[in-house]
Task: structure prediction
Amino acid sequence: MEQIPIERNAMDHQVLFIHGAGGYEEDEKLAVDLQDVLGGAYEVQYPQMPNEDNLEYEAWKQQIVTELAALDDAVILLGHSLGGSILLKCLSEEKIDVPIAGLFLIALPFWGTEGWNVSEYELEKNVASKLPSELPLFFYHSRDDEIVPFSHLALYAEKLPQATIHECDTGGHQFNNDLSVVARDIKRLETKNP
Result:
């Protein structure tokens, strides 16, 4: 997998960004913007996920688990679209040893009969109880998302009442390649929990 190693200093906050389906190159603009807005105190890692054209939950889950195992300190997790929904499913079903400082999910499709009916990506019915109760959880979705219906956000809000929900008026599925609203919340979180 393509990943550029970056030398870290002890003060860097680790951010792991999981891209959407078939969107490594397209989502790279989001990862670069996030790194720019967060600044040098953060290190955004952006691995290419396997088999973008033949998406299998198990392969992506294994890659996420591998990426997390390589980290040595608390991590901020961010996922876009399908990558975010797989990240959420993985965290609700797997034992993860690295501390997670926050989970930030952008333009997620909801999987199930109420959303997109693909059982491979569906969350368990009691997913809210499967996530750590103290985990800061944020969702972002644009009303003008041209790929994932805005109504999917409400389905997540119902299933995960502990989440902070951000309804954005514009930005489309790619948030106009501007994640400043997400970066602001990450910085606020890090200010509360240094």
